[in-house]
Amino acid sequence: MYEARFPDPDRLAGRWAEDCLRRHAAGPRVLDMGCGTGRDAAQLHAAGRTVTGADLSEAMLAHARVHHPGPAYVRADLCGFDLGRAAFDAVVCLDSSLLYCHTNDQLDGFLASCRRALAPGGLLVAEMRNGAYFLGRTDLLDTPSDNAFSWQGTAYRSTTTLSVDRTAQLLRRTRVWTADDGDEGDGGPSSVEQRSAWRLLFPQELRHFLAAHGFEVLELHDGPGPRTEPPWRDGQLPGSTTDADRLHVVARLISSH
């Protein structure tokens, strides 16, 4: 259902990540942290890299092993993981996965884990929402967004409401999934409410955290990227602003201590 609701038929996210890795001459061993269904990990594998996909969800990992074979898939928590010292040449963290580190301690845990996992000179490539976008802007908060799609013969609708928790510096999301499975016996379509949140990170704040963990920022920009409008195209170089609603970072590990 995730892939039906959030399709990426052109594998833009994986191709964008591969472009970053190639432009900065990353080695072949890649950890896709927060890999979800595995489609980005599989894209990086298809590009010739040795990929490990890691996620906290066993259901996502089970789907990945069946539908996106090639990478190795392991269960790990991005807020703190140990998959071997200097075992990777790059860590990739796409689609706001990094923002599930809600607290400073969790973010420190993620970056310390990346530092341990990366070989000297290794890269961290991440793509996420941009906290700075919400300074004075409410367009994403004012009206719930609706999306309708079909999966395995059933019609689904998702209604998403976003709100800003300024004290916790979180973007909170409530999403109601409704399935019209044709069974009117219970009085109507069935629904499930899902609650989650992302850390609202600001560009200079992210620079500070990365520097504190021994990373040099090579790129930090709002686009183009796989989820920008217009989306990234092959060969496009990174921009120079950090004002729009997505944030992209490439950083190199310069100190493992």
TrEMBL record:
Asked if the keyword Cell membrane belongs to this entry, the reply reads no
The UniProt keyword set, sorted, is: Methyltransferase, Transferase
Q: Methyltransferase domain spans which residues?
A: 30-122
Alphabetically, which GO biological process terms does the record hold? methylation
Q: Which InterPro entries match?
A: Methyltransf_25 (IPR041698), SAM-dependent_MTases_sf (IPR029063)
What the entry lists under SUPFAM superfamilies is as follows: S-adenosyl-L-methionine-dependent methyltransferases
Stretch list, region Disordered: 221-242
Task: Name the Gene Ontology molecular function terms of this record.
Answer: methyltransferase activity
Q: Which PANTHER family match?
A: METHYLTRANSFERASE, SLR1071 PROTEIN
This chain belongs to the protein called: SAM-dependent methyltransferase
Q: Please give the organism.
A: Streptomyces regalis
The top of its lineage is: Bacteria, Bacillati, Actinomycetota, Actinomycetes, Kitasatosporales
